[in-house]
Structure formats: structure tokens, C-alpha cells
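Lab notebook, bench 4. We co-purified these components, and the gel suggests they stay together. Before we commit to crystallization screens, I want a quick structural picture of the whole thing.
Request: model the full complex, all chains together.
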Amino acid sequence: MAAYRADDDYDYLFKVVLIGDSGVGKSNLLSRFTRNEFSLESKSTIGVEFATRSIRVDEKIIKAQIWDTAGQERYRAITSAYYRGAVGALIVYDTTRHVTFENVERWLKELRDHSDSNIVIMLVGNKADLRHLRAVSTEDAKTFAEKENTYFMETSALEAMNVEDSFTEVLTQIYHVVSRKALDIGNDPGALPKGQTINVGSKDDVSAVKKVGCCSS
Amino acid sequence: MKAKSPILNSPIVTLEHKRDAYGFAVRPQHVQRYREYSSIYKEEEEERSDRWKDFLERQSESAQASGQETVDSSDKATEGDDEAQKEEAPATHQAQIWAHIRPSLRAIEDIMNARVKQKIAVAKTEKLDETKNPALFEASTPVKPSIEDDSEEEFYDMERSESDPTPQLPSTVNASTESSIPWKEELECLVQGGVPMALRGELWQAFVGVKTHRIEKYYQNLLDHDTKNDNIIENQISQTENGSKTSSVESVICIPEKWKGQIEKDLPRTFPGHPALDDDGRNALRRLLTAYARHNPSVGYCQAMNFFAGLLLLLMPEENAFWALMGILDDYFEGYYSEEMIESQVDQLVFEELVRERFPKLVNHLDYLGVQVAWVSGPWFLSIFMNMLPWESVLRVWDVLLFQGNRVMLFQTALALMELYGPALVTTKDAGDAITLLQSLAGSTFDSSQLVLTACMGYQNVDESRLQVLRNKHRPAVEAALEERSKGLLMLKENKPGVKLSNGVLSRMSSESSNGDELYLGVSEDVEINSLPDLQEQILWLKNELCTILEEKRSATLRADELETALMEMVKEDNRRELSAKVEKLTREVAELHQALACKQEQENAMLQVLMRVEQEQRVTEDARVYAEQDAAAQRYAAQVLQEKYEAATTSLGEMEERLVMAESMLEATLQYQSGQHKAQPSPRSTNQEPSRKISLFGLGWRDKNKEKLGEEANHVKSSDELKSNGLQMEEVSLG
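Here is the predicted assembly.
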């Protein structure tokens, strides 16, 4: 399992967005993953919130920029601007509220409309610790995920269950996409020249950029 | 009856160590900084309380002089009615559901109310013209003058234009505005310096114009629908569409309470753990948000309102809070939290332009990192800095914002934050770092006075009229994007029949659910009517693509520029290195030359010394020569003298010889005379010969005598020496 480490040293930078209905626990998933914190008394997210964390995959350090978005419907016009350049997404629903699972389809469409086609998507059923309140079965969600060709995992930000794994899985898959791309180009992924921009998609200009020294440094 | 409800502005006495003076949570990383600043806050608070007290005393004096005392008794009567009607509400909230602003603040209230009335009047006339086009209505808002631009004349104009709806007020307002002009600037200064905690609730009400907005029993009526309409709403699925801002009772009834779920979700997520927001507090919050959503169904409920309502509830009684919230949302933030959130997107574009204009270097860097300013400033604006800045700073920003009567302070504060933290941002290396840094720096802006003053003083030229021009410039783009968005949804539905079915199911399900689905409902209606040709869709899609490509191009150019400048800098640096090498070399050479020079100087010195010695010697020899010459001269002189003496001696010798010759001749003559006498006698010749010999002998004899004399003298010396030596010999002998 990747350790928490300094942020200023990394091989890849991936932008990931957290989307889903209001109150499904996006902010707590983020705080659990980036700061290992959970709060039952969290506040509503207005617009977007942001955090980063670096993990290690195949001896490569991957820095994840994670955008946590407001869940309310009307904020979509604003939050969809944040999808641009994202190479990974976690669509979160609440396993205890079926309506949040129903809305996943719309989130999926929203995401596919505003982001790159190669984006790695994971369906995340949060609050899995509330077993007695479960309203969405794991099988249904799994079937849906297979149909939509996304990854799937059930998590609990409260119990810190699968949180690490879900993010790591998404980041690893993104890394594999990037490596494949590099292989397609005809190079060993390790032999990529420093400072090269690796585009996961054609529109991408922010993420998956190898660390480049800044001019003003 | 208590004077104030427990959640009113009484400062919280029991403070947890992680909560500030207002009862808000302080982030763990800021606890230390907060402690440092709490004493400063306390001092500032005392100072501003004194200043306000002084100001208000002077105001009340002048107010009493002008004799304006307008307390309508009807308000007091309804206060009682409110209490009677609200039986289900807990006693604490019943205690003061509505409160008047204290008389000392009446003058301020009046001037602010006048502004609100003016706005209402302007809005009314506009509504008559263009009731059906909210977008156009937005566009015409620049006509409204902001309070800063209010001049005496405008106040008069306003009073003339809106004398009908409120016939009882103009005279008093007239009086107060006349007197207000001289102290308005002072008031502005005071507000920028901060509003005292004890007055904040009432002053905010005055600023927003709660009294003018207030309609008797309106709040109560809105809440009364709560129980009646629950079942009606179930049956009546949306027949209304967004746009019309009618607040008539009928439309209120007909709107499905789709925001209810969202409000319920957000109630516990509004200032969680705040001591004043207990169950009663949350109930009040629910009522407030529900009432507003019913009052303005086109906006309904939007996340962020919960925080505003919560804050207002902490500062004022419930109904006052409702009118304040309504005033803020309808007047200050019109079109901001509506379903489309157009204005908030427009403001972001405006703000980006302002930042671009003010901080080109920072923006250049952010562009390079791929950071959009709106990513950070968006949440700032939407939450009016709540949870983004420390609370003291939030309240100070709100003071000015509410006083100004528009959103200018949002821009000023955000620009001030950019000014304060821009330099630090330029050092960041990637987008994530930049955003994290800006967020954390903003969150630690404890120096609220510095922030507010930087905002108000540094960005005075960012005013409402300027912002309106920029908003009008950017609005079409946002509206076009919105249109494309809704068309995009449409296109998908038409193209994918399979999905369409499931979407239809979905939209019905979600219309019952929490999220607002007006867009979807509107779309599904459109599907039947609309038969857009594919071509148009493609054009739209292509336009969209073009837009993104253009944007990419722009960022690429910017990046190229950035790289070029970087290259230039590197080249410059290279040059510098070369130059410095040259300089170094030159300095080395100079040093060598200096050394050589020193050597030469030393040599010169030595030479000089030698020269001096030589000179000295020369002088000595000269002296010697002079002496020698003098000696020579003296000797010559002596020689001459001797010569002279010798000559004199020779001449005298010559004379003597002559005399001698004369004497000899005389002697001969005498002898000849004597011989002549003797011739007669025998042989005179022989006798002749004899005397001559004698004379010569005589002559010689004299000479000899002289010689003898000299010899005798020498002999004498000789003999004395001999004597001495003889004596010595004798001594030797005697000794022997």
C-alpha cells in the first residue's frame, strides 16, 4: 500500500474528479484518501474542493489531483468545467439511497459529454458500512458497471474500507493506459524522455504531464 | 419576553478551544494563528464600538433635531399575531420572530431603505416593459446606480418616481437623505473599519433594507403552505416552467417542493457543531430556506444559501433573517443561484478578465500550469467567502458588501487576495500545488483589516458600472454554452432511442427525487416538439469543437510565449555568465597590471633613492671641488704674494746691486783718485790691483757674512739639538 509522501517529487500527474449526487459522501471519500480523515459533521461542498495525494505504482510515483464537486443538480453547469483534462473519475452513489444509483446514468452521460473518451471511470457505492439500510444490491451495481464498461467497488469512507483501493485502482488503470500509449508510440515506458507530455486524450493539456521544471524557478 | 433570542448576537460564552468568538469551527492548522489574532480582534472590536457609539450619538442628536419619529404601531400589533400563529414553534423562537431596528440606527436604515425602494421602483418599471424576458432584464441592470454613485439628485429623482407605492415615506426620507449626505462618507469609512458585533445584525438589516422589503404576514403565509400543500404537490407534477418570477400565492402552491430533499441534506451540513444551531436552530433554518424557495420558485433552493441563512439566523430574529436573505438573494445576487447559475458563471469570466488585466505575470504562470482562476475564485464567489476565509474576515467582507448594495466587494476582495498571495503562487510548480497553496493562504487570512482595506482602497476603480459593462460582454458566451448544453442533452436523446427510454424512466424517477429536474422535464417536452435537423446539431457540435480548439490554441500560444521568455532568460543568463567571465578576466588583468605597476613604482623609488644618493654625492663632490678651487685660489694668491715679495726682493736686490755697483764705482773712483796721488811715488799699478781685489772681496765678504750669519743660525739650532741629544746621551750614560 502506498505511503503518504512528499508531493514535490513524482513521475506522473493525473487529474481525477469525484462526482455523484449530493450527500453520497464524496467529500469524505476525498478526505479519507488524502488526509485519512472522516467527519460525520461535514459541510456542504459549494462549487468544488480540491486535494492531492501521491501514490506509488510499479515503482512510479503518481500524483493525483482530485476534484470534489458539489452534488446539487444546478451546480453541474459549473462543475462540468472541471471535467476538462480529467483522466479518471469516480462516480459515487449511496448504497442506502437507490435514487442516487439511478442518477449514476446521468452522471455518466454528463462525464462522457465533457471529458475525454479514454477517461477511466469507476463506479463507487459508498456507505457500505450501513448494511442494514442497504437499498442497492452489489449485483445490480456490478451488472450496471459491466454494461457501462466501468470499474466498480463498494466503499465506506467511515470504516476506511476500499477507499485506498478504489483510488489506487483508478490511478493504476490510468497509468496502464498511459503506458500502453507510450508502448504504441514504440518506446519502453520507462525510457520516456523527461519533460515529455503524454496525452491520454487529444484534449488533455493538464494531466499526465511529466514533471517539467518551471521557467520561473 | 426576552429581548433577544438565544441564537441572536450574544457572543458565545462557553468557547471550545477549536471555535472562534462567533462559535464557528477553527481549522486545526489555524488554531494557533487564531489565538494570535484574537487579542487583536478584541482591541479592534473595542475601538470600533467606541467609534460607532460616537457616530450614532451624533446622528441621533441631529435626527431628533429634524424631528423624524416614525414608528408605526401596526408592526407591533403583528408581532403579537406572529406569536399567536406560530404555536408549533418553540418558545425561544416565538420570543422574537420579528424585531425592529433600534431607533439610534434609524437614520442609517432610512437611507438604505431609500436605496432599496429605488431598486424596486426601477425593477418594477423594467418588469412592465419586459416581463417575459429575464435575460434582457438582467442585461438592463446597469441602469441601477450603486450606492457609491448615488448623488443627491438621484435620491430626489427616485423619490419622485416611486412616490406612489409608499406614500407615507417620502417626506421623512427626503429629510433624512438631505442630512445623510455629509455623513455618508463617514459611515462608509466606519463600515470598512468593521461593524461592531453588537450592532451587526441590525446594521445588516438596515443595509439590506429589511424594513422596506417586509410585507406583513408574508413569511407566515409562505410557511403555512407547508402543511396544506404536501399532498397537492404529490399530484401536481410540474406544470410551471422557469423564468417568471411571480411570487403570487397560486404559483407558490403549484411548484413541487423538489428542493425539500436537498434542504434536508444540507441542514446538518450547515455549520456542523455550531452551539447555536441546535434542533431549534435547524428548524428555523429549514423554515427560512423553505420560505425563500417558495417565495422565489425560479431560484428555489441552492446549496450555499444554507450557509447564508445560518449566518443571518445567528445575527437576527427569524423573520428578519428571512427578509435579509431575500434582500441579499434577490437584490444583490439576482440570477446567481438560479437553476442555470448564469450570473455566477458570468462573474467568473469577468473576474478572470480583471485578474488578467491586473496581474498579467501571475496569470501567465497560471496559464502555464493549466490553472483557471475560476477554479478557486468560483467557490469564493458562490459562498461569499464563507468557509473560505477566517470568520472575522468573512464578516468584515459581508459588512462592506451589504453596505455597498451590490457584488462589487466580491471582486474587490478576490482581487485583494490575488494581490496578497499572487507572489507566492508564482513559485508553484504544478496546478495542484498552486490551487492548494491559494486555498490554504486564503484560509489563513486572519488580518481582516488589511484584507478589507486592500480590497476597498486598492480596487476603487472596480465599480458596479465597470462590472456591468464586463458582464454584458461575457454573458452571451455563458448563455450560448448553456444552450449548447441543453441541446447536447437533446441530441443524445434523439440519437439513442435505447437510452431515451431509460432516460425517460430516470427523469420521472428523479423528478420525485431530490435534485431539481426542470431542465430534464423541459427537455423531454421539447423532444416531441423539436425536430432539429442533424446539420444544425453538427454545426453546433463543430462550433463547440472549434471553441475548444481555439482555447487550446490560445493556451499553446501562451505556453510558447512562456517558453520563449524562459529561453530568453536563459540566453540572458548565458550572456551574463560570459560577461562575468570576461569581467573576471579583465579584473585579473587589471590586478596583474596593478602588481606590475607596484613593482615599477618600487623600482622607481629605488632609482630615485639611488639618484638622490648620487645627487648627494655630486653635491659633496661639488662642495669639495669648490673647496679645492677656493684652496687653489688661496694658494694662487699666496703664490702671487710670494711672487710679488720675490719680485720686490729681486728689485730691492737689484737696487742694492746697483747701489753696490755705484758704491764700487765710487770706491774705484776714490781708489783711482788715491792712486793718482800715489803715481808719483813708486809703482802705483801694484797698489791698484790690490785694493780692487779687496773690494770684490769686500763685496763677496758681505755676502759671505750674510751666509755665515744664516749658517751660524742653523748651526745654532743644530748645536742646541746636539746639546739636547747630548743631554739625552748624558742621561743615558748616567742611567747606564
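The CA atoms of residues 196 and 726 of chain B lie 145 Å apart. Worth comparing against the SEC data before the next meeting. The two ends of chain B are 165 Å apart (CA to CA).
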